[in-house]
Amino acid sequence: MGMSAGGDKGGAVSTINMTPLIDVLLVLLIIFMVITPLTPKGLEALVPQPNPNEQQQEEPNLRTVVVSVAADRSIMINRDPSNLEVLEDHLSEIFKSRAERVMFVRGHPSLDFRDVAAVIDIAKGAGVDKVGLITEELDADW
To answer: How many folded domains does the chain comprise?
Structure first.
């Protein structure tokens, strides 16, 4: 890193020495690359986990709410039939006394996503905080 003070005639040189500026730039680039978190961002999804310690489940968990949408677009809350018009009222009634507002949606594979999304929108309108999706693979283990 040299520095020149004058030219041939003894005057000041009007060019800038770029080497120290590039060094500072590279050091800053390395610092920002190191401190930037590399965590992937994505959709947060909840899936129910079966209890590995429990051999048989004698009665269904009454705390878990599963809304099933069948291929003919009929809706069931756990084992109770419902429909889109009264789904929000039923969900509001179920979750009004619960502190934990978690619900799972199981949709038939032949359905369009908009049918499942409509149920998720209604659930959010009814005050459900977290909505998880149950897939076919998980449903077989459940």
So the answer is: 1
Range of the domain at 104: 65-141
Assess if residue 132 is contained within a domain: yes
Tokens of 51: 């209890």
Q: What is the mean pLDDT of residues 60-81?
A: 83
Distance CA 114, CA 127 (A): 20
Which CATH number do you get for residue 97?
3.30.420.270
Residue 44 counted as domain residue: no
CB under 8 Å to 11, separation ≥6 — which residues?
none
Angle at 103 between CA 98 and CA 104, to 5 degrees: 160
Distance of CA 118 to the CA centre of its chain: 18
The answer to whether the beta carbons of residues 133 and 104 sit under 8 Å apart is: yes
pTM: 0.54
Q: Tell me what pLDDT residue 52 has.
A: 72
What's the burial of 104, exposed, middle or buried (CB within 10 Å: 0-12/13-18/19+)?
A: buried
Centroid of chain to Cα 36: 21
**131 alpha carbon, distance to own chain's centre:** 10
Residue at 104 is within a domain: yes
